[in-house]
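Tokens in:
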């Protein structure tokens, strides 16, 4: 099973995909997946789930959300990726095979300074995106420091693999690090939307 965070939050086995509906447990899972394998403090998780207006019972309610996630994982037979309680917070174990965000980061890192393979690696990384981040994803998920904030055009989300004429002069790397599409260049027939 794999988690897909680059787009609507979902779980997939490669054949079937379940998009998780907006809910408190889904918000909790998104906040944990943005920091895979790291202990996320309960204060940060409560902020991700409830924002500034946390209920008086936020501590118990967070534990309830964790229990609901564990039940969901059991339903889809992914207990090995269960939410783990640790001192001060929670974590979800994940690696490049179980989380698209980590695959994206790995491809983007491999592309850095890769010469002729830079652009194909960045196209492959961009190909992992399946649309806008889930409304339940924490804002930090869709920023250039975690994941680039891509631009949208009228026909949907732009896919770099469709732009074979995009210059391999570092523009793709610039886009992924800044979160802003590159400026048009003379050898580009149609540039990414802004």
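Residues out:
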């Amino acid at each position: 099973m794999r988690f897909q965070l680059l787009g609507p939050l979902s779980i997939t086995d490669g054949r079937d995909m379940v998009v998780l509906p907006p809910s408190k447990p889904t918000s909790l899972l998104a906040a944990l997946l943005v920091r895979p394998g790291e202990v996320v403090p309960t204060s940060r998780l409560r902020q991700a789930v409830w924002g500034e207006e946390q209920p008086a019972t936020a501590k118990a309610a967070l534990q309830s959300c964790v229990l609901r996630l564990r039940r969901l994982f059991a339903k889809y037979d992914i207990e090995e990726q269960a939410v783990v309680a640790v001192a001060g917070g929670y974590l979800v174990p994940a690696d490049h095979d179980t989380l698209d965000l980590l695959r994206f980061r790995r491809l983007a890192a491999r592309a850095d300074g890769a010469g002729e393979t830079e652009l194909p690696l960045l196209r492959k990384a961009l190909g992992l995106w399946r649309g806008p981040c889930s409304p339940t994803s924490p804002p930090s998920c869709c920023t250039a420091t975690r994941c680039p904030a891509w631009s949208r055009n009228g026909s949907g989300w732009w896919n770099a693999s469709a732009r074979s004429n995009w210059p391999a002069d570092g523009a793709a790397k610039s886009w992924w690090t800044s979160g802003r599409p590159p400026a048009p260049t003379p050898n580009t027939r149609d540039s990414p939307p802004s």
